[in-house]
């Protein structure tokens, strides 16, 4: 009765929530919401400037956060990295020390949309 025992190294994904993966117009959940596309892309482009220009700190101004906005909960251990999902402005990707990668809805629900497992160690 070794039921539900995962094969080490097997890759799986788990969809979270009741929202469908495609909206009523046939758009994938990965596509940026049309009303936020331009605004969010400008914000992400500005944030990417900081990442790409790491050597030029003199011209950048950083500020301490003024208030707590949100806590993302879902990893069972620490988080190694957080990045915007490539070419979108509404999804975050997190790599956890629990061996999972999670994609979060940053714009709408601020919840985990999908979890990928398969790493035996931290990502």
Automatic annotation (TrEMBL):
The keyword Amino-acid biosynthesis does not apply. GO terms for biological process: mRNA splicing, via spliceosome. SMART domains: WD40 (SM00320). Gene3D superfamilies: YVTN repeat-like/Quinoprotein amine dehydrogenase (2.130.10.10). PROSITE patterns: WD_REPEATS_2, WD_REPEATS_REGION. InterPro entries: PRPF17, WD40/YVTN_repeat-like_dom_sf, WD40_repeat_dom_sf, WD40_rpt. Residues 1-24 are annotated as: Disordered. Keywords: WD repeat. GO terms for molecular function: mRNA binding. Pfam families: WD40. GO terms for cellular component: catalytic step 2 spliceosome. WD repeats lie at residues 72-105. This is Pre-mRNA-processing factor 17. The gene is PRP17_3.
């Amino acid at each position: 009765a070794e039921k539900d025992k995962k094969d080490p190294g097997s890759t799986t994904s788990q969809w979270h929530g009741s929202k469908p993966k495609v909206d009523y117009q046939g758009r994938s959940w990965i596509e940026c919401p049309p009303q936020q596309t331009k605004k969010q892309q400008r914000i992400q482009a500005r944030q990417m400037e900081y990442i790409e220009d790491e050597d030029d700190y003199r011209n950048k101004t950083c500020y301490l956060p003024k208030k707590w906005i949100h806590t993302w909960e879902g990893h069972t251990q620490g988080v190694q990295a957080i990045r915007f999902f490539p070419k979108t402005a509404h999804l975050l990707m997190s790599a956890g020390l629990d061996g999972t990668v999670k994609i979060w809805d940053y714009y709408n629900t601020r919840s985990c949309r999908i979890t990928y497992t398969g790493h035996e160690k931290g990502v």
